[in-house]
Amino acid sequence: MRPNGGPELAALRSFIASLALYDAIVAVTGRATGLALKWPNDVLLNGGKVAGILLESAGDGPLSIGIGVNLLNVPEAVEDGAVRPVSLLSETGAQVTPEEFLDALAPTFARYEAQFITYGFKPIRTAWLARAARLGEVITARTGTTEHTGTFETVDETGALILRTSQGQQIISAGEVFF
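Below the sequence we write its predicted structure tokens.
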């Protein structure tokens, strides 16, 4: 896609994609129990990673959104400390083809994208926070070689993670979260 607004607004598509994934999973499984969104780009099911999002862009150029969903199986190799992978089949019993999942995901993404274009990030942020994993709990965020541990307070209007730590409020615009 070629979104307007530069890289900062393009990065917010991760929130749109995660909301669309959440709704698509509900549509194909008939349940929302156990689903949560992990900042900045994962979908959790029963505490395990069922889907992930990757955004790629060259500045103001086209934006590519990669979405991986464990429909039937899980990856064999997982990074140390990573959330355990799960699949829709193993956690819900739903056997869904990639085409069926895409049929549920595409219109949901389009709906959230239209909402974002019309109303901005605020309603997307509100919806995302309502589904956020570990909101109000202690988490650890890694940014390169730096670790910040604190209470996950919110996500701000730029999509940055806000942690309350012993050193005060930390604003983390990019990184990885660990529980």
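The chain has a mean pLDDT of 93.
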